[in-house]
Amino acid sequence: MTEFDDLVRIEDGRADISPGWVVGAAVNGGALMSLATRAAVEATGAVDAHTDPVAFSTTFLAAVQPGAVEVATEVLRAGRSFSTCEVTLSQGGVACVRHSATFADLDVHSEPVHRAETPPEMPEPESCAPAVRAGFAEQITILDRLDLRIDPATVGWAVGQPARDGEMRAWIRFADGREPDTTALPFFLDAMPPVTFTFGALGWAPTIAFSGHVRSRPAPGWLRMRITTRNVVGGLFEEDAVIWDSRDRVVAQSRQLAGVRMPAAPVAS
After folding, report:
1. Of 22, 34, 190, 218, which shows the fewest CB atoms inside 10 Å?
2. Do you know which InterPro entries this protein is assigned to (predicted)?
């Protein structure tokens, strides 16, 4: 069993999250979304054949620590084309994450392609900058679960030269060779450093609300990812993400609202 499959394993309404999925002092939000998605897959799969997540919305109510997590599911709708399930992740009786996901059959909904966003031009993975646990990233243990290669043109923040353009690009996959699937895509959507790093804000950016879409089952191999922001106001920003698979097909996209502590000097518009 791979580390990711162990993360999303649920027995008798409980999951056990290892310390390997942490960013700073809490479990990564993407890991929690994948866990909740797996719970919803198992719940909807018990009543119909819809097991591909196509849309999800997640609200983070409290930080989750490594250890036992209670998982509660409720199938809200089981229709002919779509099914919807709500998942609550709790610790110590306190609700920490509420996740609502809609499921369908992507064999029906991923073809034909009438219009699609093209992937960004990037150097090959071996020519990109690997993300490693060092310095301020020492406590980001999910980096050990990932093979993350950031486009050198978007990694100036790591050497004190932030581009201040609100865009980061990278190649991403699991470090242990596990191939991507639709359950893993919510994790990957939230696995990159916050896009506010490009403004020199090298701190934790807690997610407040997250919504995502899965557009196709990913092919094996590297995933290509781009994250952007257009509005950083006060202590909040939005981050948009798009993921392409090895066929250059869009397989997932998302938007999240997150908090940030920006450097003292504001960036001119």
Report:
1. 22
2. ACOT8-like_C, Acyl-CoA_hotdog, HotDog_dom_sf, Sec_Metab_Biosynth-Assoc, TesB_ACOT8-like_N
